[in-house]
Amino acid sequence: MKMFPSMKTSSKKRQAGQAAVEFAFVIVFLIVFLLSFIEITALVYTYSVLADSAKEGVRYAVVHGTLSTTCNGPGAAGITCDGGAAGVKGAVNNYAHGSLNNTAAGMTVTPTYPDGTSTPSSRVRVVVSYNYQPLFGLGWPTVTVRAASEGRITF
Known about the structure:
Helices cover 48% and strands 17% of the residues. The chain is an alpha+beta fold and 155 residues long. A three-stranded antiparallel sheet has the order 1-2-3.
């Protein structure tokens, strides 16, 4: 006795349609989640590269004080140094150049000498900032990532 044969078919079609709609919602959520995860990972990687670059700049400045033949920084009385700290900036740029980011376009390196000289036991601080561009550009904003490092000049 087949009273309602079309009802079984209709019910199966509705379930198949419901499964397709649920799949569409889930797949969209998973894609957005995956892209967000990749974007956050790239942002953390960028910060890590900038932090290591700032440390590399401080290392360079620490060993290129007024007692070095290639002195960087403001110098001291009677000692002429590279006041623009081009060596420090070069060390930071060389280190960051190996990253996946376009450091030539948006990276700013700011070496400062809080004690006013580059004599031994003076402090040096290197701040690196970079305008991070999202990989996928899905309406996510541009973020300025900053990293800093500080040390004492030994030579």
